[in-house]
Each structure stands twice: as C-alpha cells, then as structure tokens.
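Hi C.,

You asked whether I'd gotten around to modeling the 373-residue construct. I have! Everything is below, sequence then structure, no commentary in between.
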Amino acid sequence: MQAMCQSRRLWGSVGICSRLMCLIELAGMFFHVRCISHKKPSHHTMGRKSFAITFLFCLLLALLWRLEINYYYDASVEISVKNPTKKSIRENTSHRRANQTKPWLIIYWSTYFQEQLHISIVWKKGECPVPCEVTSDRSRASDAKGFIVHARDSQMIPPTESVPWILLTQENPVYTPSFALTNAKFMSKFKLLRSYRLDSDFLDSTFWMPTVAPPLHFKDKNGLIMAAFSNCEPVRTEYMRQLMKFVQDCDYFVDAQLIHALHAGSVPVVMSTNKLDEFLPGNLRHSVIKVRDFKSPRNLSDYLKYLNFTETEYNKYLEWKWKGIGNITGTVIGDYWKPKYLIYCQMCVALSEGRIHKDGLQPITCKARSFED
C-alpha cells in the first residue's frame, strides 16, 4: 500500500482524485499502525515513530497539493496591446487550460504605419463563437490560420499563401502606394478585406456613432459658415480651389471629419461619396447638406443663407440631437456601431467557416470628381 501511495506522488502525471485516494490510504495506514501499537506493546516505540513519519509526510503532501491548486486556478496574465491608440487590456488566461480546442490563430504580420505592433489577445469561452487568438508573434507562422497585412506596409509579405491573407486599409487608394489597392495582381493574393468600405468582409470605418447632446441654440449662433485656414493669403486660397478639381470621391470613403462636425452639433455641408446615405441611418438621414443636391455653388449659397434666417428649417437638421439616432437595425453601419462580436472574433469565425474570396480581392479605385458631378 505504501508503494502504491508513493507511485501516486508523481505530480506531473497524477490527478487530484488520485491524490485524494493517496490521503485516504495514508489515513488507513495511521489507523493500522495505531492498532498494532496497542496490540503489541513491544513494538510501541516503533509504531509511534512510524506514525510520526507518516503524519509529517501527509502534511507535506497536503501542502504541495494546496500550492498546486493555487497555481492552476489563480493564474492570470496582463497582456499589452501596443497600437496607435496606446490601449492596454487585461485578459485572464486560465480558460486556455480548460479549453481543449486549438484556437484559430491570426497573426498580424506587417507593421502598422511602419511601427511594430505588440498584440496578444485570446478570447475567453463565450466571448467568441470559436476559439480565437490574435498575435503579432511571427515565430508562430506555422500555426497561423490567417495573416493580416496593412496596405501602407504591404511590402511585408507573409511567408506562405497556403492560409488566407487579410488586407487592412482605412484610407482611400489616393493615399495608398500604387502597387497596393489598385494593383489587380497584388489584390488577388488577399482573400479577405478589412476596410472603411461598407461592403468589406470586416467593416473598420473611422465614421463612429455620433454623440447625442443638445446643440447650440439657433439664436446663439454667431456665423453662417466656418472654413478652417491657418493663413488666408491669396496663393494658398487659389491653390485650394485648383486642388478641388482633382480631389477624388471614393466609394464608401467617409472619414472622421464628418463625425467631428456631427459631434459638435453643426450642420455639415458635405462633398462626398454618393453612398453617403448608407452611413446615415435612422434620424441621421436628414443631418447633413449634400453639395451634389445643388446645381451650382450659387444655389447652395442661397440655400445656406435661407437656413441662416429660418430657424425651423435649420433645426430640422438637428432633430436627431433631441430625438436620438433612432432605429439603425439591419444597417451595415448600425451593426458596426453595435457589433455582436469584435472584429478579430469576426475574422476567426469567417476563417473557421471558410468564408473567403478564393480568387482574391478586386482592385479598389477612385473616380476623379468633375465639375459636372
């Protein structure tokens, strides 16, 4: 029996139930030794020594057991995610040991605007429909189920095309290297797209949900239109006017400038994509003035002057500030503002279900704006 108990003291391979059995058997030995000591007085001294040694051994066993339980169930680790927003998250990783399923591993392969990211995120059970892990550790490439590449850093190519490449871009093609978004051969290497476009596999727009707060009262306004200049000298102003001839409107590209204007409680006058309405669901539908709704700058100017003297019409553009954003259910941007799962989890789910573009992505281009537009 003692030999059996000793064999169960191999901590690397023995379970908790086995250790409980070991303690029960030791208790039986204590009782047996005490009985012998009472029946055979001649061996009383030996019985007392055996009991003392066995008792000390049992105490040591119990102490080691307690330490191991603390190790297995109290372990947690702080994981730092260094990115442009400089955020850190804290993840309890004890669930990794309980989860027997190997996670879908996504490696952020490239840099992000020439900066190396340090990412290590593991989803807890119930936070994502599938086991999911994202890391920037390139040494784990052989275990990867997908690679993320930032379009502005796309010279950093993953080591294999046997698993899907995921392209990340939050900027339109005008500000992206020519060999990237507009290049058909390059784009065909990527099987999934994470971008500003509403038709992306994973929407990642800088057009966030605007805040709802009472705007400045109409009578407190002290101007008609604001334009931001650091210096209104004539050369710069003329240059801006000429530059407007070549500015491009990209499908679905709506950046943070519009959201800043909405946050501030102003009425934005927007020259943008003709798909702008898809970004403005619910009560936001009538929150902006679109340049393309007017035949000429003069027509637009006349309308702005009209609003400046007509409080009721002006306030219609700000009704959402009092009523709220309204119903955004069933809209792409609404699902982005209130997602069921975070974007990396969405990637793991798509990879696990094989939802990829087998022939690769199509080039993303912009149509130059003309005065007729």
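If it helps when you're writing up: The longest strand covers residues 104-108.

Thanks,
B.
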